[in-house]
Amino acid sequence: MTTSHAVVVGGGIAGLAAAHALARDGVRVTVLEGSPQIGGKLRVSEIAGVPVDEGAESMLARRPEGMDLVRDLGRSADLVNPGTTSSAILSRGALRAIPSGQVMGVPSDLKALAASQVLSPAGLARVPLDLVLPETRRGGDVSVADFIGARVGREVVDRLVEPLLGGVYAGRVELLSFDATLPAVAAAARGHRSLINAVQGIRDAAPKDPGPVFATLPDGLGALPPLVADGIAAAGGTVRTGAMVRELRRREDGWRLTIGPTRDPEYLDADAVVVAVPAAPASRLLAQEAPAAARELAGIEYASMAIITLAYRATAFPRLPDGSGYLVPGVESDPARGGRGVKAVTFSSVKWPHLRDRDPGVIVVRCSIGRFGEEHTLQRPDEELTATAMAELAATCGATELPAETRVTRWGGGLPQYNVGHADRVAKVRAAVAGTPGLAVAGAAYDGLGIPACIASARAAATRVLDHLRSREGAGHDRAGGQAEGTRTQ
Fold first, then answer.
1. Which of 36-45, 240-249, 307-316, 464-473 has the lowest mean pLDDT?
2. Res. 258: pLDDT tops 70
3. End-to-end alpha-carbon separation of the chain, Å?
4. pLDDT at position 408, please?
5. The CATH classification of domain 302-416, taken from the options 3.40.50.2300, 3.40.50.1980, 3.90.660.20, 3.30.70.20
6. What does the DSSP 8-state code read for residue 161?
7. Parallel, antiparallel, or unpaired: how do β-strands 302-313 and 50-53 relate?
8. Contacts of 340 by beta carbon, 8 Å cutoff, 6+ apart
9. Which of the residues 95, 220, 385, 481 has an alpha carbon 20 to 30 A from that of 238?
10. CATH second-level architecture of 87-205?
């Protein structure tokens, strides 16, 4: 299929994974990334001489897609796992262990829940009512807060479910879709009157020894995109940065993409296109050729966040922090309610022993700030965000020294919100795209924000493109593909 040319718009992990799959199948691929560098929210840089991720720091090891991609790149032996995954929740003024027996904060072990002391006595007393309450009926999709709150009480939502989901979506539980953000729990709940029993069923069905939960690369997960790009190049593909696609139009024999500024546009022809950019730019690109998909994509909102990375000397802490980190519920972190504003803390040098091995005298900590609807908290200068993170660590860990080095990474509009109705919205996008031959979509806006989920969407998009190209060949379309270098107007 080397005469066929496919263009992938977007050089994040989804776009790169789609291009890698296509190139391995013999398609000539061009990746167009509008920013100066590939990788999207996978980026790594040094702080105090230690390579630390600025975005996502790990991927689920229990889903195969990410691990398979690393294996295909010949780097499986390089993968490292956390030294600890035990974490805590800052609740009611103290760090408390996340109770065992829960699934994304929804409890199944009431003794463990009580022992954790995450909930108040009143909140704890409300939970077992789930076992005797009549079924909570739901027809279509509902919010996380509405369903789980009705079953086990609002305090479980606020102090367990919200912080765990907040680490993924930075969203509002009153808006987030139960079906889309907690699909396993939502599906199990349809077969049980009690939510506690539904979660217990999930726990009982889980493998007894599932292996490590997370994995990363020694130089950070931000090292993965360049490895994928190298694989694309080795298979004959091209990866371009600073190539902003402004327009996507169908032609009789394929597609034409307009790249660059209006005063000096470049045109690139392709037999098929994968759109692997966030929802808003995807909506703009699809407005002419797939307007129904564009309308649905325009309705997906995004949350912004910032990650403040602090490198302390080990002497800054009275004792080495315990566990991989802790989460802060919104009811605890909201500055308007007296909170400090941080929503999550990761003790990177504790969680990842290979980072500590780089320099045992340095303790790297990452603090996350920002939730959906709180963009104003991120409009402060870097110095204020850094001070917020330092105050958090002084209060919870007793850090008494100034950090040796700090870094602020802002991810504006970085996290798509899977709000109520998200699954239906995505189904409409896919139905509209299915009616447009040679077009596919991929990325975090559809079926999951994690690295494996993005790679899964990329593989599905690549399969759709390959099916289209093979059908063209089967119909007797034996012609050259588009011009990989493009043409520029005179």
1. 464-473
2. yes
3. 32
4. 98
5. 3.90.660.20
6. I
7. unpaired
8. 328, 333, 388, 391, 392, 395
9. 220
10. Orthogonal Bundle (1.10)
